[in-house]
């Protein structure tokens, strides 16, 4: 079946089977590999993208359910004011270790800062809770989200 998607500000047409997870459309059909496959059951956060500016797990978001929605992936974050602040903070604080979870972490952090521009450490921990990091860089992730908030304020 043919689907028309608005992704990262561009209109794209893809052929996909009904019920195909958005993750596979992004990665396999559109060749945008920044969004990662982690667990496939929406538990790890590696596949997080924004759907109408809200973070969602693309492994459990189906192509037939998103008609007319605006999809944003990690590839567009440098063009987003909050995304750029988060990426700057990530680099300043050397958050990344293996890096596999980081696109999902960044997409979730942007969602948090869009809703709560000046979060507390507890708010960061609560919001980011569903994002798994095998390298356990959670303290650096928290610090980077708080630093991004400062960058946005400047």
From TrEMBL:
This is Isoquinoline 1-oxidoreductase subunit alpha. The keyword Hydrolase does not apply. Keywords: 2Fe-2S, Iron, Iron-sulfur, Metal-binding, Oxidoreductase. It comes from the Bacteria. The keyword Ion transport does not apply. It comes from Tritonibacter horizontis. SUPFAM superfamilies: 2Fe-2S ferredoxin-like, CO dehydrogenase ISP C-domain like. Its EC number is 1.3.99.16. CDD domains: fer2 (cd00207). GO terms for molecular function: 2 iron, 2 sulfur cluster binding; isoquinoline 1-oxidoreductase activity; metal ion binding. Residues 1-77 form the 2Fe-2S ferredoxin-type domain.
């Amino acid at each position: 079946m043919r689907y028309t998607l608005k992704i990262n500000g561009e209109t794209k047409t893809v052929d996909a089977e009904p019920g195909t997870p958005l993750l596979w459309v992004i990665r396999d059909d559109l060749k945008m590999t920044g969004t990662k496959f982690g667990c496939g059951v929406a538990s790890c956060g590696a596949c997080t993208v924004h759907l109408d500016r809200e973070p969602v797990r693309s492994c459990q978001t189906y192509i037939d359910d998103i008609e007319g929605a605006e999809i944003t992936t990690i590839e567009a974050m440098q063009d987003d004011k909050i995304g750029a602040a988060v990426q700057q903070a990530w680099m300043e604080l050397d958050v990344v270790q293996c890096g596999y979870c980081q696109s999902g972490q960044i997409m979730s952090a942007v969602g948090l800062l869009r809703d709560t521009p000046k979060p507390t450490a507890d708010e960061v921990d609560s919001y980011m809770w569903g994002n798994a990091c095998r390298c356990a860089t959670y303290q650096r992730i928290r610090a980077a989200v708080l630093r991004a908030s400062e960058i946005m304020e400047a």
